[in-house]
Amino acid sequence: MSKLSSSLYIALIVSFGGFVFGFDASVISGVVSFVSVEFNLTDWQQGFVVSSPTLGAVIASSIAGTVSDKVGRKKVLLVIAFLYLASAIFSTFATSYEMLVTARFLGGMAFASLILAPVYIAEISPAKQRGRMISINQFNIVIGLSAAYFTNYYLINLMQSDAAWVVSLNLQENIWRWMLGLEILPALLFFVGLMFIPESPRYLVMKGREQEAKAILTRLHGVKLMEKELAQIEQTKQVKTPNLLASFKELFSKKMRLVMAIGVTVAVFQQITGVNAIYFYAPSIFEQSGVGTNAAFAQAVWVGLTNVVFTIIAMLLIDKVGRKPLLNIGLIGIALSMMLCFIGFNNATYKLNSDAIQTINIEQLKSIENIEFDDDLEFKQAVIDVIGKQEFKKHEAQLIQSSINIEPAFVLLGILGFVASFAVSLGPVMWVLLAEIFPNHLRGIAISFVGVINSAISFSIQLIFPWQLSNLGTAMTFLLYGLFAIAGFIVISWLLPETKGKTLEQIEQDLAS
Length: 513
What we know:
Elements: H1 3-38, H2 43-71, H3 73-92, H4 97-109, H5 113-124, H6 130-159, H7 164-169, H8 171-181, H9 184-194, H10 201-206, H11 210-221, H12 223-236, H13 244-251, H14 257-272, H15 275-280, H16 282-288, H17 293-317, H18 323-346, E1 349-350, H19 354-360, H20 376-387, H21 389-403, E2 404-405, H22 408-423, H23 426-437, H24 443-471, H25 474-495, H26 504-512
Antiparallel strand pairs: 1-2
């Protein structure tokens, strides 16, 4: 096995956690409407089912880097894999809203893999291939996202079959349990695969275990490059700060001000532009455009495919074009795409005719027959006033499909444009940057701190999205995301330097100076 293929093999194993994360994160997009009806959830409870893993991620991210600095990257990654597995099992067999939220919160603590995997991969990769190698993690994330969309769509169609074996599985009653249960297999594979990776050589050097680091670097990069890398690591090796407080003090010192500003800025704009609202509520968003449940799940598959294609493009370009150009292009694309969604929903009207009411077969709806509503908020409130919120939830997709007058292509193109723009920029580039810009001895705690901010923003976006749809309306929700993308473009264009092609030690020296 060549040196590069050896590094690639290890990166593939570590980044498989990205696949498990992607699947775990997006499978809920198909689950949420079913559990919302089964457990009679409010908007806030529905949001919490989706966002509870991210709350777990906030807590885990706050300690993952520090713990990995103490006990090693590999041990923490193994704990993360076990948490994914336990969460998948308990989510599948949840018997209440509280049990489901608790199980998903547990899995969310494993989302610390988003922080640790890029760090580990950066620390074993040659400088010239580092961006591409770290992007494998993001690629696996989008493969996992896509796999969840595919399996959800397949199960939705399978549920409507009257085949004997399908009936025996009781899919009609347990569809969401099957969606969640499929995660058990990749989580188990991730856990087993991690047993065969080495410890990070940079971590070993920081712990004074130079001989072990030397052996691993030799196996990964060859003797000549090993000597060069070992010398650079030793050159930047510093006396360990005595405690966590001292580490934080250095993290917020004047020499780290620019580095922290870059990390926090990119982390905030990666989430505040709405990516996890799109990923985790994709079928619900498409239902709002009136295409119906089956078509909504089918269109969510296109989200996954677009994600995969443009993540591959990002992987090919990130070490050639650079980090900053990709971010700028992506943020412009996100802003334009969200404006397209805004225009589509803002121009939509809603009117239930007699045929639609007969199809839905709810007699009370005749009181609002042929009344035209100018936006989704007015229409939904009118229906809820007539039939009640619980009944509206059961028939929401059908009601919207039967009443809306919209150009659904606007929404589909806007969402796919958003996904493409994010996948080629903020998705992979943020994790590459975070793994590059922080000094070796502070990398763990620094990425933990930035990861907490990233996860907190993500949690907030996911939690309030159902409330936004119910209170601000679909159009205004997408307009806000577009405006955030414009702000991100302005700030990042001004603040961000280029890091492509530089060693981690060179980046540290450049930013510190």
